[in-house]
Amino acid sequence: MADEDRIVGGNIRQFRERLSMSQQELADFLGVTTPLISYYEGGGRAVPVLTIEKLASLFGVDAYDLFEENASHHTANTAFAFRADDLLNTDLEQIAQFRKIVKNYISMKNLAQANEAKKGENSGS
């Protein structure tokens, strides 16, 4: 078992538990089996990149946060105002998609602000 697989797996478990999701619920969301989730969380299997991206969207984190060795460095707000066991798989997909849209919007807004600031600096010279 590679250290990276162990770290990623531990982070997946931590984020899943923060959302009060079962392994079965996460497996249903990803379209995989529960034993595969168990392998991922235990570090027994490497998590494919596309799965990392889906998990990051669901958890509301950047993909690289799943590779962070020290969980205290996670800056994401993963608290839901509701319990995951009350949600359907389609609800989770919509939440993940919405989080992705919000993250993209914030990134574009920050980029636009940086460009405006740069223009202001260049016009002042």
From TrEMBL:
Keywords (alphabetical) are: DNA-binding
Q: Where is the HTH cro/C1-type domain?
A: 12-66
- Reading the lineage from the top rank, the first entry is Bacteria
The record, for InterPro entries, names: Cro/C1-type_HTH, Lambda_DNA-bd_dom_sf
The protein's matches in Pfam families, at most eight in alphabetical order, are given as: HTH_3
List the PANTHER family hit by this protein, alphabetically.
HTH-TYPE TRANSCRIPTIONAL REGULATOR XRE (PTHR46558:SF11), TRACRIPTIONAL REGULATORY PROTEIN-RELATED-RELATED (PTHR46558)
**The protein, known as:** Transcriptional regulator with XRE-family HTH domain
